[in-house]
Amino acid sequence: MTSTQRPSRRTTARLTALAALAAIAALGLTACTTEEPRDVTLPDLVWDNGIEPTSPLESDPDVAFARTIDLAYAYAHNTGDFSFDTLVTGLPEPRIFDAYQHYLDQTPDTTTRFPGPYPWQPLSIEPNDPPTNYTGDITLTLITWCGPGDNLWLQTQTDPDHTGAFDPALARTGYMIIGHREDGTRFNAGASYATGNHLRGASEPCNGDDIPIGRFPNPTPFPNHPITQAPHPPLTLPTPTTHP
């Protein structure tokens, strides 16, 4: 009898994230604009039961960046602000536009809000090679983490009393690929959050008992509908396609 060997979690994560990076590279990471990103001070978090991130891996600059860009993304999603410095520097332009488009497409039945950035506990950090067809001068790091494995973190407008919770027994692994540019800045080159339809082959059960959970101290109100514009759109938007 023969058996098929299943790819390891790290191998699957690497292949998935590198494919995402290749797609981002094809779209381009920057575009010309005369506007400058705005300086925004992101809110401090309130940690459940006073338990803050204390893993030895928290001292790694890549882990610090991953937490910051997750915080920036959650803040942008909640406030409709897609043009501040931390987000513009740390998230490739096509993904900022995707987040902006998602904000505009929300309806009363589909509107969500982050109680805080997605919670996770870092498990490992390892270097990665960029895709062979990528010509940019970057290096990559893979962070693997343990996070919620259910779909209960986001708060919905249809259930405003829900404040973000998850069952530690359902925790699953996820990851983020950190790109390092030649100028020393970092960006999120791809991530997998092991919740609901984001679940990918790289996800495996993990111990969720010690995942630190940070929340925004002052929840952002849900937007009024219909949503016709964001308070702060991206600095650049794709050129509309015209048809004869």
Give the arrangement of secondary structure elements.
Elements: H1 9-27, E1 46-47, H2 61-79, H3 85-90, H4 93-105, E2 112-113, E3 121-128, E4 139-147, E5 155-156, E6 172-180, E7 186-192, E8 214-215
Antiparallel strand pairs: 1-8, 2-5, 3-4, 4-6, 6-7
Q: What key attributes describe this structure?
A:
8 strands; 244 residues; alpha+beta; two-stranded antiparallel sheet; disordered N terminus; 4 helices
What can you see in these coordinates?
The chain has 244 residues and is an alpha+beta fold. It has one domain. The chain is built from four helices and eight strands; from the N terminus they run H-E-H-H-H-E-E-E-E-E-E-E. The chain has helices at residues 9-27, 61-79, 85-90, 93-105; strands at 46-47, 112-113, 121-128, 139-147, 155-156, 172-180, 186-192, 214-215. A four-stranded antiparallel sheet has the order 3-4-6-7, with helices on both faces. A two-stranded antiparallel ribbon has the order 1-8. A hairpin with a 5-residue loop joins strand 6 (172-180) and strand 7 (186-192). It is globular and about 45 Å long.
Main beta sheet, described? 4 strands, antiparallel
The tally of strands reads: 8
Overall mean pLDDT: 81
Helix content: 10-25%
Strand order of the largest sheet: 3-4-6-7
Region (Disordered): 204-244
Signal peptide: 1-25
Protein name: Lipoprotein
Biased composition (Pro residues): 231-244
